[in-house]
Hints:
The protein is α/β, with parallel strands linked by helices. The protein has one domain: TIM Barrel (Alpha-Beta Barrel). Helix content is 32%, strand content 7%. The chain is built from 11 helices and 6 strands. It has helices at 2-14, 21-36, 92-96, 100-105, 111-118, 120-134, 137-145, 179-192, 267-284, 305-316, 337-341, and strands spanning 68-70, 150-156, 196-203, 221-222, 240-241, 290-294. Helix 8 links the parallel strand 2 and strand 3 (196-203). Helix 5 (111-118) packs across helix 6. It is globular, with a radius of gyration of 22 Å.
Amino acid sequence: MRLLLTALLIASCTAHVPPSPAEYAHLARLQERHAAAKPAARQLSADAPQYTCEDGAHSTADKWKVSGTSLGGWLVLEPWLTPSLFYQFLGADTRFGPDIEAIKANTGMDQKSFCAALGPAEANRQLRRHWKVWLTEQHIADIAKTGSTHVRIPVGDWMWRPYDIYDVVENGVRCNDGAIEELDRALKLCTKYGLKALIDMHAWIGSQNGLDNSGETKFVQWAEDVSFDPNSMYAPKGTFNHWQFKGWDWIINSTADWGMAMQLINKKHWAHSIKVLTAVVAMYGKHPAIWGISPVNEVGAWTPMDVLRKFYWCALAPPPPSICLLARPVPTRPLALSLARQGGLSHCTRRRAPLDLCHGLLLPWRGARPKRFHARMPK
């Protein structure tokens, strides 16, 4: 039995959807263009910011023993976690077809389309019911009884700065009204039962990975044929496939040329993201249950590293300096280095570790030592 459980655990931790041939080809093209770019345009040129911790920065002295679970499927919907909320969309091809646009408009496959298909009022009614029963005080108490120390709480950016369908008001309510109050309820319960919480920014505007767990499924391939072809990869018209057609449009588009990535940052989405992080920290930076804030979840596989490093660096900075609002080029020595001098950047070694070894750190704004949540242990 122990061997079986071990095998299942390994399988669950390693299971993933492999890139399609088209994705591999796209990645190869990006790599070729990046390699051929002129030195002045390359994102890793000699004068590019290194985003490294200052010499002499020390790791925190915290003992990194973390045990717990993720409260997935609660404030950010994912059909595989909460299929019962999405069963109501089955048969949309029959009820709204053969008009393919009507079928699309009435099919929910993620948080955004759930709100759009049902409308803000009905979606909010269903979500409020879901929030109450998906996470109860007994659940938190049971987690604590196992000896767990932490819970991870995935959240969406729309909770703090609604946009698109999330900002549409119907009968006096928006789709996700009440979500912040639910988060407050969970944190209050965590405090009561001695658990710490990691707020995980699970979903960002434009989608950071193109999957349903980002709040918006991108590049969905819809079946257009009315008749069913048994040799086709699709069922009748109105069904869809998206796993083979991933793409994203968060702070950088999935088609962006790596050699010009820093010039292709989506300034609107970037500013939105920094403002959301600022609001989250202002609201929860001193909450007794908060252990940390994860700036982003599961970024798309070929997101340019310099763009991502800059985002993490700004997420670690004090209240966003102008460089994080893209007002001017990032200096070689980011303003966030002041935190390193204060010991605020955890597990950055004396050897100037690159930021990707230091990016699981959150809440330096409040003056406390940030917490690390990735598997790599500090030396």
